[in-house]
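Weekly structure sync, notes
Attendees: PL (lead), two postdocs, one rotation student
Agenda item 3: pending single-chain targets
PL asked that the sequence for the first pending target be pasted directly into the notes so everyone works from the same version. It is reproduced below exactly as submitted, 574 residues in total.
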Amino acid sequence: FGGEQLVLQPDGSVFIENGYVTTSEVHPPDWGLYAASVEIDRDRVIKAKNLALQLVKTPLFWIPTFHARLDWLLDSPFHYRFRWGGSQGPRFGLTYNLLQTKNWRTSIRFDYRLTRGPGGGVEANYRSKDKTLSFESINYIAKDSSLLIPHEKTRYRFEGDLKKEFLAQHTHLWVSYDKISDPNMPSSYEDQEFDIKPAKRTQFSLHRQEKEWIAKLYARAKINSFETVKQELPCFSLSLRPQLLGKTGITMAQTTSLAYLNYQYSTHVSEAKGFDAARLAYSPRFFYSSPLSGCTLTPDITLLSILYSNSPHEKGGSWLNLAKSSLRVDSSLFRTFSAYTHTLAPYAEIAYTTPPTSSPHHHDIFSIEDGWCGATTWKTGFRNLIYGPLGSKVAEKLAECDLWVEGLVHPCLSPDLYGRCTVFVLPNVRYLIDAKWDISRESLGSLRFRTEWTLDADCALAFEYRTRNAYSWRKADPMNFYLEAFHSEKVLRNSSLSDQRQTLLTHLFYRLNPNWAIEAMSRQGWGRSSEPKYLEYELNLLTTLQNAWHFRFSFQRQQHDTRVALYLNVGLKK
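Predicted structure, written out during the meeting:
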């Protein structure tokens, strides 16, 4: 931008006489917006008179006055995208920033698929000046069909997310919802990456934290028929601040929760019926830390009492009571070698859970918090930390490695050897290893190996390999052994929890020059007994022309679809 005269006022405002703005790099510009006078106040609001668009010094249109925010000129209101190929045909898209202020932004989105029809919607984003309130929403409907349901005629998504932090900064409110026509709608709406994007939770959360207690009111509901959801209508929990019991040195912590739970299956699972119950839980915990010569002894006892309003096979409710106890011994040794320090922290732990007064057959299992059974586990290992000079810092962490053996004592099962390591070979190279060795079968149970390498400011790559055998069960918490304690190995092996597989992930980014870059991602899987192997990848070419035209060309090869997409954004980078 420029002009014949530019005046900087003391209050931060700017006045330009015979000014212009352009993205052309030649002089005189090939095209530009010209104005007889331009005034920009301290709030970045621009006022122009006699505004004209000129192409090769030829006026194309003229307006007497123009008012807008300066951000509107630096960030074009138009965003274009075009996708060709795939089983659903070409699609053209346009997004227009209808309204933009300091705190509010509203965009209109229009899509047209040649083989199906039009689609449109409104996106809104709001953030308060004090950043304590934010709101985002998507309202979209299209004449379209998903890959898995080609006969459907209409798809939609109505999504919202509201977060509020009250002035005391002790209370947080979070409300979200996501009503969608089919499970693939989030990935179809935001199709710039080939990773699966699940729907957001429909929930209400009010969290209050005080000096002596923390309370939370939470509710979650099912609004999409194809989802399987544990509805909480609602759930209230209260945690009291841990207190010392007199002069004993024993610390007591208490947690209470009251909820009405309603478990609803997807409509596609017709053979399963939902179940519900009111659930009242109370759990006091007592723990004590005793320093001994060279180590620390920590006994821990937790009592748990859960009352269910009804049971699956009997009339009336059920009452579950149990106790968990553990004893842990920790120690720490270190030695310094020149500029390096090695810390060795051996530990050992044994834990015992009493058989519950109500077995899993006599009450409903809503989540992992209800799946209790009697078990005894043991764990022993040592943690290594190595510090030393890495780059410009003197005490940088070079490596962290935890190696331990863990298993069930009762029921008696062979333990497994676990390892979790993070190694920083160089300031720009990192390795992560998470592995389990199946001692009873003398084979690798599971492995996750990942390397991240930043060659320079223009090139970075990541590589990750995952594998697990048929006896590494799919669990939300891999170190929770109540599943193995309750079910036999034969039952687990013949269930969907047994999922042998191998996966390879790669990610590469390389900047050819300041205006050209390429990005490549791939995902390859094989080794599953019930599914064929697959290879998915995405190639992106990114470029900026004349400082304002931002192109992104993408080729996406998915398991059930192939796409070629073009995304265009016009505007200066702020």
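Discussion points:
- Residues 330 and 347 are 4 Å apart (CA to CA).
- The longest strand covers residues 393-410.
Action: rotation student to compare against the earlier draft before next sync.
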